[in-house]
Amino acid sequence: MAIRNVGIWIVVLLLMMLFQSSISEDPRWAAKRKRMSEKVRKMFYHAYDNYMTHAFPYDELKPLTKSYTNSLVELGNLKLEHLSQEYNGSALTLIESLSSLVIMGNNSEFERAVLWLSENLSFDVDARTNLFECNIRVLGGLVSAHILATDSTNRMVQGHYKNQLLVLAEDLGRRFLPAFNTPTGLPYAWVNLKYGVMENETTETSTSGCGSLILEMGVLSRLTGDPRYEFSAMRALRTLWGMRSSLNLLGTTLNVETGEWIEYSSGIGAGVDSFYEYLLKAYILFGSDELWSMFQPAYLAVQKYLRHGPWYHEADMRTGMATYWQLTSLQAFWPGLQVLAGDVSGANSSHREFFSVWKKYGVLPERYLLDHQIIHPTEKYYPLRPELAESTFYLYQATKDPWYMDVGESIIDSLNLYTKVEGGFASIKDVTSMELEDHQHSFFLAETCKYLYLLFNDSFLVGRNYVFTTEGHPLPVLRAWHDRLPDTYIPSTHTYSIENGGREKGVSAMSLQICPATNLNHRDGYEEHVESVCHIRDLVNNHRCFNDEDCGVDATSCRQRSCSIAGFCGLWLLT
Ligand code: DMJ
Prior knowledge:
The chain is of the alpha+beta class and 575 residues long. The chain has a single domain (3-537), classed as Glycosyltransferase (Alpha/alpha barrel). The chain has helices spanning 2-23, 27-54, 92-103, 107-120, 131-150, 164-176, 207-211, 214-224, 228-242, 273-286, 289-306, 334-341, 344-361, 387-399, 403-419, 443-456, and strands spanning 60-62, 67-69, 128-130, 190-192, 204-206, 253-255, 260-263, 265-266, 307-308, 311-312, 315-316, 326-328, 367-369, 374-375, 420-421, 424-425, 427-430, 435-437, 466-468, 474-476, 499-500, 504-505, 562-563, 569-570.
């Protein structure tokens, strides 16, 4: 017995030494953070400056020919039908760059851009746009920038800003409303900004298309006091949730007039992804129990029916039987969502698989056949997508494990090696030959560069609580907008006096202080701060736990978190 105890202690001591060696901040990490964030900044400006020179005020840059494309009306429109002659672009990439400019600290360029948009942008155009795409890119970009322009840091020179972005956002939001005029409340996928829903418009939409509008439209309602936007988005979400199967799974496409499913196959990638994301993020932002009561069973159903080890396949929503064994590039957002849900070990293992495919090809192919371990014969492209960088950022925030910085570096190296051209960053047409395509998507500036930058420099987030939309635009968690924030919650002025060996001050990006921030974790008989929705306090054991007491309380649900065998704190929804 005594010998066994000694053995256990040796193992414990070895483990502690192992952790200890990685606890102390290696000066090389600080140097790496500096070097890499500078590298990403350069990437962002290479993309931005080329857009401003060759494409602004049109929508997106064509980096190979140094020209432009008015792509807002093409997004989600694979057949390019009903393309309008009148549409001349909406400076889409500029709108998408606004929050990244702020995060990188370029307030003067942000102000210049805000003023230009204030004076020149109009949505009174004959343009049939995809509601989802226009919502996440344009409405999301505008409301987020409006909040950043008017927050306490006063980024706009006084007097120059008179809520023009909010006026524009409200004008756009009003143009969305006709899309919701259906018997089910589910919105049409397409709406013409000038004329509303077109005659003979398709009634088919996707789960993400009608189920991920609540963040932007909810915030628009909170900012304007007009409840119609939030009401419409929430009603659609409720209808959609009501269409779930007895297994709590949802299909991929549906008919907005009849409320019937068209495609019963259920997954976490294209056509569904942001539906899950918005349930949880809207719960974090608005605190409504109704949203949590949707997210939790939805998440559990994914884990039960779609997960295969660290991979996720698709399954028939009615039977739970596997349909397609495919990894899609869009699925790589999932580990980031798992971090927010507190399932850090689940996030870690699925992230590793996505990264292994990235390493295999140099970037992530759009579709990869899991059962054959090969690329899909036609979907071989990589359009500069952000999802793997996004998840890497969340996992680094949750664990502070420097391995995620290595992953970020590897992503940055690949982007520079394969996609950087003189005129910007070009999408990859075929990852097996690295042949390029003449398109720099706006989400490269809104998301890819932003998450890579935040991975190495999160100073923007210190002392503040933000939820990032699916397009990477930050929205603040505010008491005024939240159903459950207690009075002790102080969102913007509260700073922590936590120090990391005298080297690092501040709190993590995920510190959603929804539960009171003190008196939650009694260790050694004293009261202490408990930080974050999803990970343990910044100073303990290099962000790893030894027992449940290290983990504190989940800030959004106020439930005690527990410590996994791997040393990560979480809610462990499956237990
Ligand atoms: C972005 O426009 C958003 O993240 C969206 O939810 C799906 N993915 C693209 C970028 O890949």
